[in-house]
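Checklist before submission:
- one chain only
- standard amino acids only
- sequence pasted in full

Submission:
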Amino acid sequence: MFRLGVRGVSRASNVLWRRSFSAEAAEADQLPKAVDTAGRYAHALYNAAKKTNSLDAVINDVDTLQAMVTTNEDFNEFLINPSLPRIAKVEAITEIVDRSGFSDTFSKFLMVMAENGRTSEASKTLTAFQGIIGAIKGEVVVKVTSTMPLSEWELALLKKKIKQRFFADKPDAELTVETAIDEELLGGLTIQVGDRFMDLSTRTELRKLQEVISQAV
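Returned file contents:
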């Protein structure tokens, strides 16, 4: 079980930096729900890393944390669990930052996400950041998650549609498609192209329907 360290959180030493960073990251909290928050946070992290000349270090930090999220189910559950108080997550992230060896830029970025109540977006944000770096390097990785394996024909058609939508000006772009299975989607699929995320799952459609019904009652 992932344990939360209960300790006081001292923000005084970082408050000025966080305010500066939040000037970019806070836009994500003010955007309509239809806009991908993770992508905006990923761009904010990239801009902060460029400004502080720490891009290489941040890239390594992102890869390290993403590996933790992917391989440690308890840690991932901790990040996405909405029932945990925000202060508990801030305390735990502070403890992780203190012992992780992460760069100053990335450490403060994680604290901003925790304080803004955005830890549930962490994995998507890290993936979006990796997509930004890949695009800069000329690499295009498409991550497709579905409820069952897609056929070669379906994957080929999907690649064609993605190229038409996102790379119309780069017809020679080579896409690498990574697939994953998630039965909890119930149907449909999700597509991640760099910092763009499209949720075409039945689960999301049902959630939207439930929200409409609850608002009407």
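Reviewer check: The two ends are 39 Å apart (CA to CA).
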